Amino acid sequence: MGKQTFFNAYFADSGQRVYETNRQKSSYLKLNGCSARFIAQLESALTANIRLHSVDSFVQTYKVNHPEEVVPSTKTIYRYIKEGVLAIKPIDLA
């Protein structure tokens, strides 16, 4: 019986599939963990004809008034807007 040699082979297709699967599972909050009331009020406040809040002022005010709810950071909200996760479009912020 001779010496058996083992080696690892890398297959790009399977590596990419594993990466994409793990990437999809790696989101922290997305909208599932956020307060639904917060998202609804944010969208209505930022799409109103006369806007009283920026994204930052709305998030900070909401966090103060509702400390028990899970509210994402301002940076996360801007990222959600850019990714198209929210109904708000970047043009709505102008």
pLDDT < 50 stretches: none
Estimate the strand proportion.
under 5%
Task: Count the E strands.
Answer: 0
What is the ordering of alpha helices and beta strands? HHHH
Mean pLDDT: 86
Largest sheet: none
The percent of residues in helical segments reads: 40-55%
Radius of gyration: 22 Å
- How many H/I helices? 4
| Principal-axis shape | elongated
Indicate the structural class: mainly alpha
Distance between the amino and carboxyl termini? 75 Å
Verbal overview:
The structure is a single chain. With 94 residues, the protein is mostly helical. It has a domain of 58 residues. Helices cover 49% and strands 0% of the residues. The chain contains four helices and no strands. It comes from Streptococcus dysgalactiae subsp. equisimilis. This is Transposase.
Secondary-structure blueprint of this entry?
Blueprint: H1 12-25, H2 36-46, H3 55-65, H4 74-83
Helix pairs in contact: 2-3
In short:
With 94 residues, this protein is mostly helical. It contains 4 helices and no strands.
